From TrEMBL:
Residues 6-98 form the Rieske domain. The keyword Iron applies. Signal peptide: none annotated. Keywords: 2Fe-2S, Iron, Iron-sulfur, Metal-binding. The keyword Magnesium does not apply. InterPro entries: Rieske_2Fe-2S, Rieske_2Fe-2S_sf. This is Rieske (2Fe-2S) protein. CDD domains: Rieske. SUPFAM superfamilies: ISP domain (SSF50022).
Length: 110
């Protein structure tokens, strides 16, 4: 579990924020008012998903148009043959709480 203090306001202003964690690079984005935390690099060829488009409830890689369900990272279209890691996250007051599934995480805003 990681808590990013005061991150709610930052995310409201910036909408997409890269973060470095001890698990590698991730992106936090605000989707319909809720935080979504996903791995920063596309499973296909490592395209930067900070630049991905949101279409309906999909995240579309800008490089070769692989599409992933925002809710769970499932690859649903395009050349990616692996799902995108998505980590459960929620706001707790002004903070963002990221629920890593194993071990401690040291996430800091990048
Ligand atoms: S790098 Fe994302 S679809 Fe190819």
């Amino acid at each position: 579990m990681a808590r990013l203090n005061g991150f709610r306001e930052r995310l409201s202003e910036e909408r997409v924020v890269p973060v470095e964690t001890d698990r590698g690079p991730y992106v936090v984005r605000l989707v319909e008012g809720a935080p979504v935390v996903h791995y920063a690099l596309c499973p296909h060829r490592g395209g930067p998903l900070e630049d991905a488009y949101e279409i309906e409830r999909l995240l579309v890689c800008a490089w070769h148009r692989s599409a992933f369900r925002i809710a769970d990272g499932r690859a649903v279209y395009g050349p990616a043959c692996a799902d995108l890691p998505v980590v459960p996250a929620r706001f707790d007051g002004p903070d963002l709480v990221v629920d890593w599934t194993e071990g401690p995480a040291d996430a800091t805003g990048g």
